[in-house]
Q: What sequence folds into this?
């Protein structure tokens, strides 16, 4: 079973250190959630693991391969894809053009097209709007497009940064259901999420960050109630 691990990761922006030696592990076929207050370093940690930010100390590994400070396209080739907050669709590109961007690290473009055709049939609303500009899609459709695009490279792990942000309650449930379906295909999910009440039931393991440090790790069953989570946020044990 594949494992994605962050070992005492230190990173930040410019000269400002944001993440102070955080370690965590995620397994293939399981959902690992990262919770924490705004500004605690959750998204920064995901970006460092995915190669979008340099790692100043420690390392990110996918099985025996060190990912830290590899170019992003090499990280993708190793089997790791980041879906940024808001999905990161290209609004002036069509649905199909956005999906093709998901295969940019794959040399065989015929293989990319074949994968896209197989994927898009799983998303009927996207299949009907192949030539529509992504910017004209609803928020829910953009979320679907982002997830489908992440799957084009057939990753072993997907890093999701607040996939429910900006979605209606119904679309939040649908998005989380689709994420759960991916684990049945053996894909590992490492997910930053603010919607704790909805994410907790699907999580296999969770971590809580505060002030750039890991304050808690365990299973959802180890968390008694919301009060315990808030206590951890505020620096309690």
A:
């Amino acid at each position: 079973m594949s494992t994605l691990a962050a070992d005492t990761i230190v990173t930040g922006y410019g000269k400002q250190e944001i993440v102070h030696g955080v370690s965590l592990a995620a397994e293939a076929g399981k959902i690992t959630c990262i919770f924490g207050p705004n500004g605690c370093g959750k998204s920064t940690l995901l970006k460092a693991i995915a190669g979008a930010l340099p790692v100043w100390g420690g390392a990110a590994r996918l099985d025996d391969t060190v990912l830290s400070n590899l170019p992003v396209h090499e990280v993708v080739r190793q089997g790791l894809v980041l879906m940024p907050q808001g999905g990161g669709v290209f609004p002036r590109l069509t649905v199909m053009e956005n999906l093709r961007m998901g295969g940019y690290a794959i040399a065989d473009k015929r293989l990319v097209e074949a994968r896209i055709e197989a994927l898009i049939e799983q998303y009927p609303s996207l299949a009907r709007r192949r030539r529509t500009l992504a910017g004209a899609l609803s928020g829910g459709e953009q979320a679907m497009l982002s997830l489908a695009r992440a799957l084009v490279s057939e990753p072993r792990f997907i890093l999701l940064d607040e996939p429910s942000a900006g979605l209606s309650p119904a679309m939040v449930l649908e998005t989380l259901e689709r994420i759960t379906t991916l684990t049945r295909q053996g894909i590992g999910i490492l997910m930053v999420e603010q919607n704790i009440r909805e994410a907790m039931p699907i999580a296999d393991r969770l971590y809580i960050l505060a002030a750039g440090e890991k304050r808690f790790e365990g299973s959802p069953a180890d968390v008694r109630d919301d009060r315990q989570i808030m206590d951890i946020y505020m620096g309690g044990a």
